[in-house]
Write a structure and sequence with these properties.
This protein has helices at 2-9, 41-50, 56-75, 150-164, 176-184, 198-204, 218-253, and strands at 19-23, 30-33, 78-79, 88-91, 99-102, 109-110, 116-117, 146-147. The chain is mainly alpha-helical. A hairpin with a 6-residue loop joins strand 1 (19-23) and strand 2 (30-33). GO terms for molecular function: ATP binding; protein kinase activity.
Length: 256
């Protein structure tokens, strides 16, 4: 445990929560971590929804920071295993520069080899199908108890779905045993969110590929999201340039 804590404390990246120390207590060990005022990204997204805020640029910027954090973790051979918006921390007070960091590294493991020995770790419905015993999608040469870092990519696709929906719960009302079975046999994936753009779907959907090798890397995901942020920024600028003259004309033509 302490070896893993030391490994995690050595991680340093703007998009990964800093771990400053470990509280040594056999009954209830704890870590001292960086504080972000906004709390979990899940809660931050839901607050944006309550205030009717849904700018695509902000969503893409949030997803990009999470992807950059995961890109760094994978470059350090660390697999998160429980990636979801509840485990991302944020500060969304300035939506021109939203801050998002990977948090809750309690289930993380450092890869000793190309593969990671893993049991049932994670949270439904963010868990990749290969984490389930007897997953029917696995190739014959892929052991069901040997998983790669691509489990995090599957979970990130679920995070992108959460980000677009501003904190909705995947598969609402579906019994857990049906979620379990559907993910395990590859028949269950989230539906397209309302008003979701094709360019967002083009990044999100490949993350849910049944075969881990078919999923993109976080470097690929981050590059795609970086381009998407630029696209949404240009669209926002064009909309502003159209709306401002329109509002000015309304003011000129309105009676006081």
């Amino acid at each position: 445990m302490y070896g893993e804590a030391e490994m995690l404390a050595a991680l340093r990246h703007p998009c990964v929560i800093a771990i400053y120390g470990l509280v040594v207590n056999q009954e209830a060990p704890a870590s001292v971590i960086e504080y972000l005022r906004g709390g979990s990204l899940k809660g931050g997204l839901q607050r944006l929804k309550q205030h009717g805020y849904a700018a695509r640029r902000v969503r893409a910027a949030i997803a990009l920071q999470a992807a950059r954090g995961m890109e760094y973790l994978h470059s350090r051979r660390v697999v998160h295993f429980d990636l979801k918006c509840d485990n991302l921390l944020c500060d969304l007070r300035d939506l021109h520069r939203p801050v998002v960091k990977i948090g809750d590294l309690g289930l993380s493991k450092k890869k000793a080899t190309t593969f990671v020995s893993g049991n049932m770790r994670g949270t439904l419905p963010w868990m990749a199908p290969e984490l389930f015993p007897n997953a029917s999608h696995l190739d014959d040469d892929q052991s069901e108890d040997r998983v790669t870092e691509k489990v995090d990519v599957f979970s990130f696709g679920m995070c992108m779905w959460e980000i677009w929906t501003l904190g909705d719960q995947p598969y609402p009302g579906l019994p857990l045993h049906e979620v379990f079975a559907g993910i395990m046999n590859g028949s269950l994936r989230p539906s397209r969110p309302p008003d979701c753009q094709d360019d967002w779907m083009d990044i999100m959907q490949p993350c849910w590929a049944d075969e881990p090798a078919a999923r993109p890397s976080f470097t690929d995901i981050a590059e795609s999201l970086d381009r998407l942020v630029a696209v949404y920024e240009r669209q926002e600028t064009r909309m502003s340039s159209v709306q401002i003259p329109f509002v000015d004309n309304l003011r000129k033509n309105s009676s006081v």
